[in-house]
Amino acid sequence: MAGVGESVSTQMGMHTEPLTGRDIKTKFTLENEGSFGYDFARDVDFNRRAEIDCADLEPTAINSKIRELMDSGHGSIVVRNPGAKHSLVVGILNRMNIIVDGSLGYFGCGLLDGPTVRISGRVGWSFGENMMAGVCVVEKNAGSTFGAALRGGDLVCKGSVGSRTGIDQKGGTILVGGDTGAFSGFMMQRGRMVVCGNAGKNLGDSMYDGTIFIGGEIQDLGVDAVPAELTDLDRAWLIRKLGMYELLPEQGVDHFTKIVAGKQLWSYDNLEPTEKKLVL
Amino acid sequence: MAGTGYKGSRIDDVDHFLKGGGLDSEREQTIGQHIGYRYDVNLLPDYERLTPFLKDYLEFMGWDDLNWLEDVHMGYDDGQAAVFDRNINGWVAIPEDMDLPDNQQDRDMIAREMLIKFQMSPDHPLVDLYKAYRKF
């Protein structure tokens, strides 16, 4: 590999700092093998089940109650009467099964890392924001910015979603059984979005990377979003993923349109080294 | 590996980033450093290549597929195979004495397995961060 000292920019005195060698360099060792969960994760049993009646509780109390049940080893929790309250079921860094019997308001299921959550009703804005890992399934419709800044895991809405779905998505998979609104995939950086229905205006606008699959009509594409060829690996993955959530269309997946970044907007050349890492 | 891509270009040599450091574009050659991802972020996993460890992990978590690990690939930093750990915002180097498979799909499975082992270790930096900054 050519070193920094050999570059033209260094010879011209224009170099500021190297892009490589600045990261935390850690070696894997066989001695540091852990278990399947984080070292600080609660030890829960999926077969231990509890219920929370949210009718007379504030969101903070409901979230605290979920943590208390996790601390006592409950691996399955049913949340009754959520009443579309905001910011419920957030910040859980554990494997868990959570069933929400009803609808959630804004910012539901944000900052999750591990749990499987099923919501029988609808959800409001920014559902699943910044989720790191896990599964969230919404049986009905969702509001705007569904899966904003999603980083990992599967976020599923069996109905339709609002605008700006997956805005700033940095990983993970968003699955929509119905339609999605305007500016879906806006500034997407990586990950996958699958919409079985139609997509609104400016799909994938300014996307840097990642992949969008649309089963219906696309109103129009945003800046630098371009069609790509559907590969056999894409088809196999779509059939598997949609089948997992009972969203696989009867006609299969051959009709899906694949959208990727044209990469004309790539400006990594101009990024500072610290900024460059943020898109990984 | 055939079928993967980088900045719109097809990558046919699985060791592309190990051999050349990834200095492909004119700009990269000018500044003498690699720019952007060091792997194909859009490469979907081949589930026929799951390792036994990964199967056990998925069963433990209660998931039907790789979930967040679909976004984990073996990358290449500074001419060395490595995995990017989002929890420390840095690369974790693969031991140099480890034999790498001849295709990216199998390399990605190894990367996923090693990243889990590292992240779940009591020695992981996130353990100390969690103690210092946890809010609930």
Outline the structure in words.
Helix content of chain A is 13%, strand content 24%. In chain A, helix 2 (59-71) links the parallel strand 2 and strand 3. An eleven-stranded mixed beta sheet of chain A has the order 2-3-4-5-6-7-8-9-10-12-11, with helices on one face. Chain A has a domain at 141-263. Chain A has helices spanning 8-11, 59-71, 232-244, 273-278; strands spanning 26-27, 45-53, 74-80, 97-101, 113-119, 133-138, 154-157, 170-176, 190-195, 211-214, 225-228, 257-261. Chain A contains four helices and twelve strands. In chain B, 44% of the residues are buried. In chain B, strands 3-4-5 form a three-stranded antiparallel beta sheet. Chain B is of the alpha+beta class and 136 residues long. Helix content of chain B is 33%, strand content 15%. The interface between A and B is large, with 72 and 66 residues.
Oligomeric assembly: heterodimer
Indicate the radius of gyration of chain B in whole angstroms: 16 Å
Structural class of chain A: alpha/beta
Helix and strand content put the structural class of chain B at alpha+beta
Number of helices of chain B: 5
Low-confidence stretches of chain B: none
> Can you tell me the overall shape of chain A?
globular
Low-confidence parts of chain A: 1-5
User: What about the largest sheet of chain A?
Assistant: 11 strands, mixed
What's a quick, concise take on this entry?
The complex is a heterodimer of chains A (280) and B (136). By secondary structure, chain A is an alpha/beta fold. Chain A has helices at 8-11, 59-71, 232-244, 273-278; strands at 26-27, 45-53, 74-80, 97-101, 113-119, 133-138, 154-157, 170-176, 190-195, 211-214, 225-228, 257-261.
Key words describing this protein structure:
heterodimer; A: 280 residues; alpha/beta; 11-stranded mixed beta sheet; 13% helix; B: 136 residues; alpha+beta; 3-stranded antiparallel beta sheet; 33% helix
